[in-house]
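Purpose: get a first structural picture of the assembly so the mutagenesis plan has something to point at.
Setup: two entries, given in the order below. No constraints added.
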Amino acid sequence: MGLLGLGFAANAQEHSYAPSDIENGRGLYQGNCLGCHGNNGDSVEGVNLGKGRFRHASSDEDLIALIRAGIPSTLMVARPQFSYGELRSLVAFLRNMQTGGVLTAADTREVKIGDAKAGQQLFFGKGGCSKCHGVNGGGSRLSPDLAGIGSQRSPASLETSLQDPRKEVREGNRFMQVTTKAGVVITGKLMNQDTHSVQLMNEKEKLVSLLKKDLSAQAMMPSPMPSTQDVLSPTQVADLVAYLLTLKSEESAK
Amino acid sequence: MKSFIKYSGALILTLATLHTQAQVTSERLLHTAADPGSWLLYHGSYDGHRNSALKQITPANVGKLKLQWIWQQRSRGGASEKFEATPLLADGVMYTVAAPNDVVALDPLTGRVFWTLAYTPAPEARVCCGRVNRGLAIHGDTLFMGAIDGHLLAIDTVSGQIKWNIALGDAALGYSVTVAPLVIGNKVIVGPAGGEFGIRGFIAAYDVGTGKEIWKFHTVPGPGEPGFESWKDPAKEAWLTGGGSIWTTGSYDPELNLMYWGVGNPGPDWNGDSRPGDNLYTDTLVALNPDTGKLVWHYQFTPHDEMDYDATQVPVLADINFNGKPRKVVMTANRNGVFYVIDRTNGSFLLGKPFVSVNWMSGFEKNGRPIRALAPTEAGTFIMPNNQGATNWYPPSFSPQTGLFYVPTWMDTYSVYTKRPVTYTPGQQYIGAYPTMAVPALSVRTVNQRVHEEGYGAIQAIDPATGDVKWRHEMTDVTDSGVLSTAANLVFAGGREGFFYALNATTGEELWRANLGGQVASGPISYEINGKQYIAVSAGSGLFVFALEN
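Result (structure tokens, whole complex):
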């Protein structure tokens, strides 16, 4: 915890939220927000509710005021009917949206949470995590930066991702392999595709665009992240989980 | 003096000519087939075909289509909305609507603007699914536009001035208008959107000259009206917030003097516990007499809908050979994933066949009632197609030349529908829990990082005699595009990726495409001026016009 910038963390998550509030908020989100903001909270361009990325608000009280008042001339209509308690629940849910979206109930299995300091050493040391993942910068462009991961994921889901990284890969983190008719194989992160072309970030972190008519094959690839299974001990995994949980905001200190 | 007389005579003659030109009579609307150079109705014609008789652009030369002009709309807030309007082309002027409610008159040869009416909807306007507008109607020298604040406006075609402006319903309660009105005779016929706000829907006719209401048909019947028995809640109050919105334009058969409208979902959308029963006339095709608004027959596609499937797809009219006999039919590719053929004289069910993967129903009873297989549950139910539907408001096309029905399709999508408690608060959404969707319903995002299994798009050609899909033009992303077919065996349509295609209407083969850089979410049209055929389509924030080089 020593290196965590608490001042920054306050922006994203001001305190811990009661599980019952999060669950109530999930229902309110499904009934009022999901149609526009989507299952993952990222359907409105430039807004990512699951990552605490808002255009018009940052603190819990800002968010509550915004939801009540709405945003003029947009689909974000005022919702004066909500009680303060309901809005607190909704914000609690937004602060705890899980990877996989609204219907993915938080994986609340009890898992062992170890020593964050040891986890941090492992992350940047022999665990090899930082070879790919940055924390507020520093990693590969091909891998998701993990700043803020601690406010987006439950301990159990973090453990699952460490042990079985191929289980779920979200949009934006998916890999594709294409083979050109000339026989060149290119693997990269899928940035975008349409009916006639595909845009990738290749393994050298260069942006490449290919016309599908020039390809002989294209296929989605499993996540390139290796599993920690049989590599790290259960204690080490628990230490990593503990460290990741300290990364509460996108401005998390390294 | 002599020359002055001569001059003023010429002036009078010119004005007289213009005056004659600027009259789109009821008679002209009945005979659009005789006037293929114009586009006088939302669907191009009363039958909903969106089929142009113009044949200058052919499969052989369509590859040489060239951009003629682009008009970029600059309406307040409209640039981030979908540009859904189908333009009208009448007597040398093009009329369209930039979201939310800016009406513009353009020169169809240059794209230059004659006038703009920037109507500011009331701030309490609320819409479920975009501050959009699908187009205009025209009669005489008057345009008609519905606005998202629930108003209906009559606008002078020459000056852009508002002639009259009436409220169809209370904007603060969720009454809005996104549909292009339909003019029949001296009536302008329209209905409100708002099925996600607990409105009570209707179709109503207003006098084209004054805006005075002539008749009103409630899409959710009240006590004493036929169909009320299908609202079985003991308290007898569900009908008051029963939905039944109108947001796609109906079609009209002058010979039978019947018009056909698809009615929207019941409210609340995704939890039907408060409204037991079939909930007529939601999710229903209604055949009305346009003189009186009286219901002549109805067919309900999705009784007691809890998936928000609506029936707001365009009813398309044709006389086809069905089981060896000529039949007057109405065809519709429904949001619920099934393509229907119905006898339009009496509403009898002829055919229903899925055109995507469907699991909410398992077949039909003899009378055409669907056998329901799935419904939302508290734990969540995996249902195909997804909530946005196999298709939606995107207008399809029918070609009398090929006999095929062309439908923009979201292929093989799914939603998880979850039943949650819902209470009505005036002016607030009255829906239940939004279903999940792998493909965002209303997205204007330009990036697609999804995989094929999460859903993709297609233009499909369906043979109405069998319901069989004859060909399918697939796209990586889904499509909100309308379709235009032409007598020269061409189909024009696009998709969310911004591609706009010309396809062979018989085979589906791609003959030409242009990348318009923004999603095609409107119906293309064709028109002719000075012997030259044009194709117009809006995409992103622009209106694009193509033609062959001279």
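The helical segments of chain B are 2-21, 26-30.
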